[in-house]
Specification:
This protein is mainly β and about 230 residues long. It has four helices and 13 strands. The strands form two sheets. Strands 3, 4, 5, 6, 9, 10, 11 and 12 form an eight-stranded mixed sheet that branches. A five-stranded antiparallel sheet has the order 2-1-7-8-13, with no helix packed on it. Strand 3 and strand 4 form a beta hairpin. The radius of gyration is 17 Å and the shape is globular. The relative contact order is 0.20.
Length: about 230
């Protein structure tokens, strides 16, 4: 799964030339967490537009509640479950990012790692979104789609977010309701991932600075994916 992510370079030209300038400021963030508002790109009248959305709805825990929306959804079954199927076809989005964090279980200890694109290419997570009621206010919330992790990440975690590079953004966001084509996008090639161990400071969302991304050597250093 993906429970924290980074977007530390929001001025990447790939996003700037593809979508109009947002009407809100986007600042570098190094420890983006569920329940917080984050920049996403949606479609409006066939054009990509920026929005601020909450990552999941953490105020509701039960799936039977209409306002429940998880932070992650499995891409392999997203069209099979009535809960997700409608928003999958109507409300897709892109979540710009440049990496995410996973915690490796080792001898009862959870070791955080930062995972990122080896070639530093621009990508965005594939997502879906929904309007829910939070504290009597209707708000959009998003969920990041996940898939099986590639072999070089399996020692850290068996799942990974679906990442889409620039050539796929248009098809994902504005594509017609062609289930086969959309699922093909979700199962397509991913960037080449690298990772390294980081400080446990990332465990606390109040820590949101560039030092979080510094490699930290430890007993997991044998698994550095470079």
């Amino acid at each position: 799964m993906c429970g924290r992510y980074t977007w530390s370079e929001p001025k990447r030209e790939e996003f700037a030339k593809w979508a109009n300038k947002p009407d809100f400021q986007i600042i570098p963030r190094y420890n983006r967490a569920p329940g917080q508002s984050h920049p996403v790109i949606t479609s409006s009248s066939g054009a990509p537009v920026w929005s601020l959305m909450s990552w999941g709805n953490s105020t509701v825990k039960t799936k039977g509640n209409a306002n429940f929306f998880p932070i992650n959804a499995r891409s392999e079954t997203v069209t099979e479950k009535p809960f997700f199927r409608k928003v999958f076809f109507k409300n897709r989005c892109l979540i710009p990012a440049d990496g995410w964090f996973e915690w490796q279980n080792s001898e009862g200890e959870k070791i955080p790692h930062h995972i990122f694109a080896e070639k530093k290419e621009a990508f965005a997570f594939a997502g879906i979104w929904k309007l829910v009621t939070i504290k009597d206010v209707r708000r959009p919330v998003f969920s990041i789609l996940t898939r099986q992790a590639p072999p070089n990440l399996s020692c850290v975690h068996h799942r990974a977010p679906v990442a889409m590079t620039e050539m796929l953004w248009e098809d994902w966001l504005h594509g017609k309701e062609d289930e086969k084509k959309l699922l093909t996008l979700l199962s397509g090639p991913q960037p080449d991932w690298s990772f390294f161990q980081v400080s446990k400071r990332v465990n606390f969302i109040r820590n949101d600075d560039s030092e979080i991304l510094l490699p930290r050597l430890g007993k997991q250093s044998l698994f550095i994916g470079l």
